[in-house]
Amino acid sequence: MLKKTLLLFLILLSLKGFNQQKSNKSTPQELTLESAVLSYYNGLYPRTLSNLKWTTNNTISFRNDSILFFQKPTSTLAKSKYNTSFLNSIDSNISKIPYFNSLDKNHLTYFKGNKFTTIDVNTKSFSVIELAKNAQNNQVSPNKKQIAYTIENNLYLAKGEDSIIPITKIKNSNIVSGQAIHRYEFGISKGIFWSPNSKCIAFYQKDETNVAEYPLLNINSTPGKLNAIKYPMAGQKSEEPQIGIYNTNTQQLIYLTIGDDYFDNYLTNVTWGPNSNFLYVAQLNRDQNHMQLVKYDANNGNQISVLFEEKNEKWVEPEHELFFIPGIENQFLWLSERDGFMNLFLYNTDGKLIKQVTANSWVTTKILGYHQKSQTVYFSGTGKDPKNMHAFGVSLAENGNTFPITNGNGIHNCKLSPNGEYLLDVVYSFNKEPSVYCISLKKNTTNQIFLGKNPLKNLNIASTELINIKSSDGTSLEARIIKPAKIEKNKKYPVLVYVYGGPHAQMINNGWLAGASLWMHWMAQQGYIVFTLDNRGSSNRGFEFESIIHRNLGTVEIEDQLAGINYLKQQTYVDTNRFAVHGWSFGGFMTSSLMLRTPGVFNCGVAGGPVTDWKWYEIMYGERYMDRPEQNEAGYKKASLLSYANQLEGKLLLIHGTSDDVVVMQHNLALVQKCISEGVQLDFFPYPMHPHNVRGKDRVHLMTKVLNYVMDNNK
User: Fold this and answer.
1) I need a labelling partner for 19 at 20 to 30 A (CA). Which of 44, 92, 350, 402 fits?
2) Which is the catalytic residue, given 39, 390, 660, 690?
3) Rounded CA gap, 362 and 353, in Å?
């Protein structure tokens, strides 16, 4: 009887514990600001498969900490192919599965420090190409046997463990080889371009002799030191671009015959032809309204011909390399928004337009690849809803009708298999777990590879609503409202407007959290409405929507943001007397503009790294949207925040990283100086030694500073 009683007691106790655990799991935990700001590091951002990629033999691969998995596109089960122990038996330097650079049936390649290793899993052997310890900008040749890289301002080639060849030996530090030029505008992300046959290297070179130096203070030494950077401001001297070609067999170095009239213009979209004999370059004038696509002989650098030109009274912005049609050496696809939206155009290498492939009234973002047998091009684009990103196909052989591959609301990041028959689809949506699918393009079937977990499942987060607002001219504007999880009846809530508002950015989408940062949910749970609107000038809506800002930055954008404010004032749950605004970079410019040019609308604002006068911003970006100061004096004056310093009402906090090399601190200091001269009080907070963005653990300090300032002053 005692045993039965004891057993019954233990069962009841375990059930009580189970119910308590179940109850604890169902009770949402409170989100902290620190965990929200560091959400990725704290496991609060949804994860998919690590190092997910196609192998050269059309197999899916991904890794975890101890195993490299391979999976056939049609299979529902991944197989553990190689583990750490197996790879360590070949290369004793491997302590965990590395992030692989490339994979094929028998070979794995990866970087570890300054060593590039190729493992042959059949012979259980490996080879190493060792770079200099201070090597940067590493680019591996297509055959994986050579690596080009930079040290400081020069370019080098490594062919083996002890083979290091200097390609340039320029002592003048003003001449920089092998690095991205034009401050990463025009889609430029690198400065080294291998030929398809691995025999030649094309590379950017820039001469910054005439570019003014800008001083940044390093306080981490005694005494402090000045770090001078080259910073070309609007209207001033720019860098002089050039392109070199190095033959790795003959060790001959040549330069393209660009011409003297291109001394301060732009060279972009560098593309090798498939036979490695020709190099194609998009050449853009400094005014950025006239582009020429030029074909060069890669053997001697001579210009062969100008294939075609594009002009626009506002701007032309080439950002995509040529896509050569596999199996057809003399045809390529060109991405252009000449008809108002980014579309695909088919040309031959003599410059003849064969046809316009797509004529969609929405934005194409990139080409994913090509299926040779069906002559189908696969590409990414928004589709009719600009908040989405989908994969599409179009046949070159037929009439050009675009057909969708992916569906449903969300952001689909897709990768086409090398044979063009399968599509990996990594999809995020704002109210679903991330998923990975493999789509058979021939059979039109979908195979789920991975279903992620919602990392916020047990957290008490706010509610999100996506809405549509009309601008003054009737243009549709996308907006997002984040509200406390429980709205109390008859209660009025203060508003924080988070703004960016500039080109090449979209704040509202159907991806994770609808594009919001998790700190916005924390703020909503403190009793705030957090509101964001993509005004005209934002991306993924076509050329007319974006280019309306030309020569008048800050005018239409303010008008659209105020349309959002007017909408909020009509909502019963909004405290119409308590509006605050915060933004960074272009959003800092917008925050300061809204505080100074529309006084009385906002009680307070926090502007991080703001542009305060466009004459102090870089040439490549600034002149595209504002032209040069001498060409647009009225526009520069109207956009300058110094013109409105005496109009400040409410509280304004300016924040800047003291080592900001994007929006230099002169912007903020000049506005502070102007406010002092006008007798206007405002607040300023520096983040010593931080560049344009404050990252790491210091970002918790930043967001605490920002949000406390809002809550303390939005009254």
Assistant:
1) 44
2) 660
3) 22
Among residues 585, 592, 593, 640, which one is catalytic? 585
Residue 687 included in any domain: yes
pLDDT value at residue 137: 97
Distance CA(594)–CA(580), nearest Å, equals 10
Report how far residue 615's alpha carbon sits from residue 625's, in angstroms, rounded to the nearest whole number. 12
Q: Contact, 280 vs 298, CB < 8 A? A: no
Sequence-separated contacts (24+) of 283-287 with Cβ below 8 Å: 283/258, 284/186, 284/316, 284/318, 286/238, 286/619, 286/623, 287/623, 287/627
Whole-number Å distance between alpha carbons of 219 and 686: 13
Among 138, 195, 191, 183, smallest CA distance to 164 is for: 138
**How is residue 358 annotated by DSSP?**
-
Q: What are phi and psi of 568, to 5 degrees?
A: -65, -35
User: Do 350 and 450 sit in the same domain of this protein?
Assistant: yes
Res 76 pLDDT > 90: no
Our answer to whether residue 660 is catalytic in this structure is yes
Catalytic residue among 287, 692, 698, 701: 692
Q: CA angle, 122 as apex, 116 and 128 as ends, to 5°?
A: 15
Task: Enumerate the β-bridge partners of residue 345.
Answer: 334, 356
Tell me how far apart the alpha carbons of residues 94 and 96 are, in angstroms, rounded to a whole number: 6
Is residue 510 located within the same domain as residue 644? Answer: yes
Pairing of strands 115-120, 125-130: antiparallel
Residue range(s) defining the domain that contains residue 450: 322-454
Q: Report the 10 Å Cβ neighbour count for 627.
A: 22
Clarify whether residues 352 and 400 are in a common domain: yes
* 656 and 609 inside one domain: yes
- SS3 label, residue 275: coil
Q: What mean pLDDT is predicted for residues 561-571? A: 98
- Would you give the DSSP letter of residue 504? T
Q: What is the mean pLDDT of the chain?
A: 94
End-to-end distance of the chain based on CA atoms, in angstroms? Answer: 69
132-153 pLDDT, tens per residue? Answer: 989 999 999 999 999 999 999 9
Query: Same domain for 343 and 486?
Result: no
pLDDT at 342 over 70: yes
Helix segments in 570-618, DSSP class H: 586-597
**Strand (E) or helix (H) holding 673:** helix 666-677
Map tokens 């398809």 to a residue.
196
Least confident of 89-98, 269-278, 530-539: 89-98
The tokens for 566 are: 């007017």
Model confidence at 158: pLDDT above 90: yes
Question: In 431-555, which residue ranges form alpha helices assigned H by DSSP?
Answer: 518-525, 543-547
Domain final position from 304, 321, 338: 321
Distance in angstroms (rounded) separating the CA atoms of residues 671 and 595: 13
276 and 379 fall within a common domain? no
CATH of the domain at 665: 3.40.50.1820
Among 398, 430, 454, residue at a domain's last position: 454
- As a whole number, mean pLDDT of residues 194-212 equals 98
Q: For position 342, which CATH number holds?
A: 2.120.10.30
Q: Could you tell me which of 34, 124, 115, 55 has the C-alpha nearest to residue 86?
A: 124
Cβ count within 10 A of residue 712: 10
Whether residue 635 sits in one domain with residue 624? yes
What is the residue-wise DSSP string for 616-633? GSBHHHHHHHH--GGG-H
Q: How far apart are CA 321 and CA 344, in angstroms?
A: 12
Distance CA 402, CA 585 (A): 37
654 domain-assigned = yes
Q: Rounded to whole angstroms, how far apart are CA atoms 362 and 476?
A: 14
Two structure tokens written together for 117: 């290793």
What is the model's pLDDT at position 302?
Answer: 98
Q: Are residues 614 and 680 in the same domain?
A: yes
- Tell me, yes or no, whether 62 lies in a domain: no
**Is 500 inside a domain boundary?**
yes
Q: How many domains does the chain have?
A: 3
Per-residue model confidence (pLDDT) at position 1 = 37
Model pTM score: 0.93
Q: What CATH number is given to the structural domain containing 314?
A: 2.140.10.30
Q: CA 369, 373, 377: angle at the middle one, nearest 5?
A: 30
